[in-house]
Amino acid sequence: MAGPRMRRINEVLREVVGGAISDLSDPRIGFVTVTAVETSPDLRTAQVHVSVLGSEEEREDTMKALRSVPWGTIFTLLVTRYRPRGLAKSDETWHAWDKDLAPSVELHAAAYGKGDRLTLSWDVYRQRYLKEMLRQKPKIAALAQRVKNGEMITLLCSSQCTREDRCHRSLLKALIERELANPPDAL
After folding, report:
1. What are the b/e assignments for 31-44, b being 16+ CB within 10 Å?
2. Are 111 and 120 in contact (CB under 8 A)?
3. For the whole model, what pTM was predicted?
4. pLDDT digits (tens, 9 = 90+) for 35-90
């Protein structure tokens, strides 16, 4: 039986894969629910269980479309201020780490003071993080270009982050989406 850490990883992956499936633009993909994810102990592979609604033909089309997705092209980016301690580089499961897209040391400290108590309101944290990201426009544009080129990006964060809707990843995702909707050359 999976321990608490592995259950959390499986749940996060279930949400990430579910979101990635909903972002796919293949018209063959119908109504899909990711019901479970079983991750290998070394975190290198995962078995994804889905439920597909529709007629037999619609279910088959959906599964063919899902199997044709180049899942191996998902770029995983760790966007935390600090690299995880006690993890050998050879055991890292992400492609890149960019601390500049994470909250600054000062913002991180203000938000997660001693004992991991949130000391800033979400609105203040959000405003300060977005202001910090103004200096990172070229990096955000580069990530948006990767998405535009068909690459899927997964933003990873600390295991301390338990609410995606209150995480800088959700803000960074919105900045990438805004860049896609309003590229600089569109003006």
Report:
1. ebebeebebeeeee
2. yes
3. 0.61
4. 998 887 777 678 889 999 999 999 999 999 888 877 655 677 778 877 777 777 77
3-class secondary structure per residue, the chain: CCCHHHHHHHHHHHHHHHHHHHHCCCCCCCEEEEEEEEECCCCCCEEEEEEEECCHHHHHHHHHHHHHCCHHHEEEEECCCCCCCCCCHHHCCCCEECHHHCCCHHHHHHHECHHHCECCCHHHHHHHHHHHHHHHHHHHHHHHHHHHCCCEEEEECCCCCCCHHHCHHHHHHHHHHHHHHCCHHHC
Domains located in the chain, CATH noted = 1-69 (3.30.300.20), 70-187 (no CATH)
Both tokens of 60, joined, read: 């088959």
Phi and psi at 146, nearest 5°, equal: -60, -45
Pairwise CA distance, residues 83 & 88, whole Å: 11
What is the rounded radius of gyration, in angstroms, for the C-alpha atoms of the chain? 18
Residue 41, amino acid: P
